[in-house]
Specification:
16 helices, eight-stranded mixed β-sheet, 2 domains, Rossmann fold, 14% strand, alpha/beta, 8 strands
């Protein structure tokens, strides 16, 4: 019955979208910026393919390659014939179609399983649906429908899980911030880690972090989307990037089963920028912070680096800032406002919050100079650069270090 219901939901959601606009064509550019885009080298894929990250998050490696192969070999029309993942409409070869199709297979498999096995299959389905919506550009109808499926599968997975799940609606500016709380148990109040991803991932992508790292060490996990993302898309992104996270922090004393005096922060990419910012503004209420691959100054303060970004990243920035037409020159200048050094936080003062800054060797978005700047601006800070000979091991090492940091600071 559930299988039929889910099939009907997906058919209803996507029925009108066989001629939907293709993701790479959604963000408009000023004429002067279009000439800049035309001069850059053409990439075979519009999207940045995060193969290893997606595998770490729970995607099956063989299925991933099969999906990408079907997209690459599709004979259907593309927005750009030279860019593989630009197949038009919700049909075979289209990015959203292929990832959604396999997500539904995992959803169907879940309906034939019980308990924890069913939960894991649904979590996997939610991840495939989320990747179907990647990179979550505003106004992308196919992405919006895929997000509906991702949220529904995630909620079902969490209800079937052996662990406790709560959806929080936190009042803010007459609306609600929606956050997910996962607890390994409710025997006693637990230290809580607030987790935030970047500008192109959803909070529902974080389930494996809880299952494999946080739950075994008796940490609660509270996830939140960045402003302009997912369930927090009603708020625009501004240089006050941690504003929603502060509202969550204010609300924590009202949340049962967690120790609101024992709060850690774990941020990926731009989520790391926001949580480091919070570590300066709310020093008395945060015990530890870990930032993984967080851009805090170098890439944000360099107009040339912003202008040289792949189109997908420029689309994401333009979308998050709510721009109807992007002027790359002014966007590059505007992004300096998100530099925590330019904001007077890094390099000019120190926070009492112990911050661990980690990135992979050669990361152009979060170079080691950013990590060192973060570490020097924390009284007990540390910067770690992980060799990139094996990226898969690099992800695992990063998270092992993050959990060790949390155990030391929140449980000592």
């Amino acid at each position: 019955m559930d299988d039929q219901k889910n099939k009907n939901l997906s058919e209803t959601l996507f029925a009108k979208h066989h001629q939907a606009k293709e993701t790479s064509s959604l963000v408009q550019y000023m004429p002067s910026s279009e000439s800049i885009l035309e001069l850059r080298p053409e990439h075979k894929w519009y999207r940045n393919l995060r193969r290893l990250q997606w595998i770490w998050q729970g995607v099956d490696a063989i299925e991933q390659e099969q999906i990408l192969a079907r997209i690459a070999s599709s004979p259907n029309s593309r927005t750009n014939d030279d860019v593989l993942d630009t197949v038009l409409g919700f049909r075979k070869g289209n990015w959203a179609y292929e990832w959604t199709h396999v997500g539904m297979q995992h959803q169907k498999r879940a309906s034939q399983l019980q308990g924890e096995e069913a939960s894991l299959a649904l979590y996997k389905a939610s991840l495939y649906f989320s990747i179907a919506a990647y990179p979550h550009i505003r106004g992308d109808n196919l992405a919006s429908q895929a997000q509906v499926l991702a949220n529904k599968a995630y909620e079902e997975a969490s209800k079937k899980s052996q662990y406790t799940f709560k959806q929080l609606k936190i009042p803010y500016q007459g609306k609600s911030i929606e956050a997910n709380l996962h607890l390994p148990h409710t025997d006693r109040p637990l230290p809580v880690v607030i987790v935030c991803g970047g500008l192109d991932s959803l909070q529902t992508d974080m389930w494996k972090l809880f299952l494999d790292y946080l739950a075994p060490n008796e940490f609660a996990m509270l996830t939140i989307d960045m402003p302009s993302m997912g369930k927090n898309s009603q708020w625009s992104l501004t240089e006050d990037a941690s504003v929603l996270h502060k509202a969550v922090l204010d609300h924590l004393p009202e949340v049962p089963y967690i120790d609101h005096w024992n709060v850690g922060l774990l941020g990926f990419r731009f989520g790391g920028n926001a949580l480091i910012r919070l570590s300066f503004l709310e020093q008395k209420r945060i015990k530890a912070c870990v930032a993984l691959g967080a851009p805090v100054h170098d890439a944000l303060s360099s107009s040339e680096k912003i202008k040289g970004m792949p189109k997908m990243y420029l689309d994401v920035l333009g979308s998050r800032l709510g721009k109807t037409a992007v002027d790359i020159q002014s966007l590059a200048l505007q992004m300096s406002a998100w530099s925590l050094k330019m904001q007077g936080l890094l390099g000019s003062r120190k926070t009492k919050v112990p911050i661990l800054a980690v990135s992979l060797e050669g990361d152009p978005i979060a170079p080691h100079s950013d990590n060192r700047l973060i570490a020097l601006s924390s009284q007990y800070g540390k910067a770690v650069q992980i060799p990139c000979e094996n990226l898969s091991q690099g992800y695992e090492k990063s998270l092992d270090l993050a959990i060790e940091w949390m155990i030391t600071e929140l449980k000592s």
